[in-house]
Each structure stands twice: as C-alpha cells, then as structure tokens.
C-alpha cells in the first residue's frame, strides 16, 4: 500500500534565484531514531517563496546556500521505521514540525527546546534537506501520528497553523476577549479559527476582499479593512502578515494594557513602527516563533472540527508544476491562501487538482 522506495527519488531543488528543477536524488537512508516517510503533500509559504526569488534573509546572511531541497510543511506516510523508534509503524499517516533540537544543551535541558543552541530547521536553517521530495528521513521526535480520519491535504497545513496556535496561547486568549487578527493569509485565517474556538470575539483585519470573506466564513465576528479598524478597541491583537503597514497598525488597535503578538516576519526594517505606543499604552508584547509545542492541542481542534485547515487550501499542483505553484504564491491573487504540491511517491497521482478537498 505504501510502496517501497527505490534508490532514487524526485525532489524540488532550488539552484539559484528563480531557478528550480525536479532533480533525481538518492533516497535517504533511514537513520536510527528516524522514520523514512513517503511525502504526500507539501505546503509552500512565504519562507519558501523568499528562497525561490532569492530575497530570503537566510540567503543574505549566508545561513542557507543554493542548491538545496526546499520545503518544511508536509504530510505523509511512514514507510520504514529506524532502530530505537517507539510508537510508529509502517503505514502510519504522519506530519511533523521542522525544528531539530540537540536535547543536550542548557536550553534543551531546561525545557526551552525551541531555543536550542544547536537547532536546525528542516528546509529552512542548516543543511538538512527540505521536504519537497518523494521521501524524507525525519527524526521520530519531530513526528506527529495522525488519525486516519484526517485528510493528508489538511495535515500539510498543520505546521504553519501551529505558529498561529502558539500566538493565541501566548496571549492567553479566552472566552469573551475582543481579539483582532491582522492578515488573512494562512497564519491569520488559522489564528482567527483558533482564537474563535476559545469563545473570543474575533475581528479579522485585511486588505484582500476574498480573504476577509473567508475569515467571516471561518468564524470572524467582524471583518474590516485597516482604515475601518478602531484604535484601542482590542484586548489582544495578532499581527500575522509581516507587512509594514500592518506592523505599524497593530499597536494602535490594542487597548491600553492589552496584549500584542507579532507572528509575521518582516523582510526588512519597519521605520513606521510606533515604538512609543508600546510604552505609552503599557502593552504586553510577544514575538512568536513557530509552534513546536502546540501540535497536540491544534490537532484536537482540527479533529473536533473547530479549525478547518482544508478551507485554507487554494490549489494542489503536481511536483512538476512547482514553478507554477511558486508563481501562484507570488502573484497573491488567490481566493484561499495556501498552495500545496502533491508528491505522493512514484505511484501517486500527479493530476492537477484545483480547489480544496
Ligand atoms: Zn512555512
Ligand atoms: Zn539543544
């Protein structure tokens, strides 16, 4: 059913700015403590786009060099279990986070795995190849077993949504809170749903009509364009775009004494940021990176129908159309934010399938 890997596999290799190819690479060897996974779907996000077009800060700072296999959002099926791995079997549907920790440094040992001194991020930081390939060898500790009822397309969107879950958790959002979410991309629309699941009253603020309509469908009580949003009106604000106008707007919308989370990563300096307001309004400010501790909680919300990740998927394209997928991502004209690549192994279907499952 899951098929056994041959000796080579197809992988999406970025070789330079706006240069990519589907390369034949060796299937990774299953290391102790790891599982070999046949990848089903890979989600593409702004981080991947910046690697594709060459604008990534990781490239600029020399933390990543072409050529490399891109991708860090994925779902798949275990095809081989390495020695010493407990709790996984061949055929298990899985997804996982991309942060690999050493578990030995002072930060890991004091429970701050996310800040591991020797951290690598699969497909992003360090030399670990990304996930846009037919097979990946993943540390078992990064994997999450999935219920068979969860479709693997939605599962490929868990990774970015865990960051949104982290933002909601950090702000301690709860029933009755007035929450504003800035941005209607994947992070924003996941944050809208997760915040809504607590019983909070959620307002989505964005510039895309389709994104705002989707936010309304997914539980936002109000949807506003930035110029319509009221200052000082929200106890908690989540900035989920990384775009300068939204970063500058976020502190204005928070009520005095309120909480603010920055989830989007700006690609450069933000001169318009009203730093003084953080002090004058006595705000509690959080920078939110990833969500490696949020997987179980998010999966419960998804399984119980409180968060619909399939609704965020605009289209699913075959690996051979990766260039089209990246162009679609860069173009920004989509009714839903997430673009997936269907990989699925050699026997997998490679039909162009538009729309969410
Ligand atoms: Zn991502
Ligand atoms: Zn460590």
CATH H-level homologous superfamily name of the largest domain: Medium-chain alcohol dehydrogenases, catalytic domain
Q: Give the N-to-C terminal Cα separation.
A: 21 Å
Low-pLDDT sequence parts = 345-357
| Oligomeric form | single chain
Give a count of the beta strands, DSSP E runs of length 2 or more: 19
Class inferred from helices and paired strands: alpha/beta
Protein name: 2-desacetyl-2-hydroxyethyl bacteriochlorophyllide A dehydrogenase
Cofactor: Zn(2+)
GO molecular function: oxidoreductase activity; zinc ion binding
Keywords: Metal-binding, Oxidoreductase, Zinc
List its traits:
oxidoreductase activity, 6-stranded parallel β-sheet, single chain, Quinone Oxidoreductase, Chain A, domain 1, alpha/beta, 11 helices, binds zinc ion, 19 strands, Rossmann fold, about 350 residues
Write a brief structural summary.
With 357 residues, this protein is α/β, with parallel strands linked by helices. The protein has helices spanning 46-53, 57-60, 106-109, 152-155, 158-170, 186-197, 209-217, 244-253, 275-280, 295-303, 322-331, and strands at residues 8-16, 19-26, 34-44, 68-69, 73-81, 93-96, 99-100, 120-121, 135-139, 143-145, 178-182, 201-205, 222-224, 234-239, 254-262, 284-287, 313-318, 338-342, 353-354. Strand 14, helix 8 (244-253) and strand 15 (254-262) form a beta-alpha-beta unit.
Provide a descriptive summary of the structure in words:
There is one protein chain. The chain is α/β, with parallel strands linked by helices. The chain folds into two domains: 8-157 and 309-354, Medium-chain alcohol dehydrogenases, catalytic domain (Quinone Oxidoreductase, Chain A, domain 1, Alpha-Beta Complex); 163-287, Rossmann fold. 25% of the residues lie in helices and 28% in strands. It has helices spanning 46-53, 57-60, 106-109, 152-155, 158-170, 186-197, 209-217, 244-253, 275-280, 295-303, 322-331; strands spanning 8-16, 19-26, 34-44, 68-69, 73-81, 93-96, 99-100, 120-121, 135-139, 143-145, 178-182, 201-205, 222-224, 234-239, 254-262, 284-287, 313-318, 338-342, 353-354. Strands 3, 5, 6, 9, 10, 17, 18 and 19 form an eight-stranded mixed β-sheet that branches. Helix 5 crosses helix 6 and helix 5 crosses helix 10. The two termini are 21 Å apart. Residues 345-357 have low confidence and may be disordered.
């Amino acid at each position: 059913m899951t098929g056994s890997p041959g000796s080579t596999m197809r992988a999406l290799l970025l070789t330079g700015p706006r240069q990519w190819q589907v390369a034949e690479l060796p299937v990774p060897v299953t290391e102790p403590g790891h599982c070999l996974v046949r990848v089903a779907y890979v989600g593409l996000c702004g981080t991947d786009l910046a690697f594709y077009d060459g604008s990534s800060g990781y490239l600029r700072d020399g933390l990543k060099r072409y050529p490399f296999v891109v991708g860090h959002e994925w779902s798949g099926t275990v095809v081989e279990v390495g020695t010493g791995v407990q709790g996984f079997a061949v055929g298990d549907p899985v997804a996982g986070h991309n942060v690999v920790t050493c578990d030995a440094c002072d930060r890991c040992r004091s429970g701050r795995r996310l800040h591991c001194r020797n951290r690598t991020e699969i497909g992003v930081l360090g030399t670990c190849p990304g996930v846009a390939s037919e097979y990946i060898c993943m540390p078992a500790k990064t994997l999450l077993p999935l219920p068979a009822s969860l479709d693997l397309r939605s599962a490929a969107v868990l990774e970015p949504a865990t960051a949104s879950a982290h933002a909601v958790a950090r702000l301690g959002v709860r029933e009755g809170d007035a929450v504003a979410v800035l941005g209607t991309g994947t992070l924003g629309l996941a944050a809208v749903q997760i915040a809504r699941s607590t019983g909070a009253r959620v307002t989505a603020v964005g510039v895309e009509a389709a994104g705002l309509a989707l936010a309304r469908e997914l539980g936002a009580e109000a949807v506003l364009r930035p110029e319509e949003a009221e200052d000082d009106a929200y106890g908690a604000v989540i900035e989920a775009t990384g775009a300068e106008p939204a970063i500058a707007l976020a502190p204005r919308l928070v009520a005095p004494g309120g909480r603010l989370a920055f989830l989007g990563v700006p690609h450069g300096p933000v001169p318009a940021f009203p730093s003084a307001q953080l002090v004058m309004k006595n705000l509690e400010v959080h920078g939110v990176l990833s969500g490696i501790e949020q997987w179980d909680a998010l999966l419960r919300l998804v399984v119980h129908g409180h968060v619909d990740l399939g609704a965020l998927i605009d289209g699913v394209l075959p690996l051979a159309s990766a260039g089209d997928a990246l162009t679609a991502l860069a173009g920004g004209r989509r009714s839903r934010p997430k673009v997936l690549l269907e990989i699925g192994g050699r026997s997998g279907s490679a039909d162009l399938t538009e729309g969410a499952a």
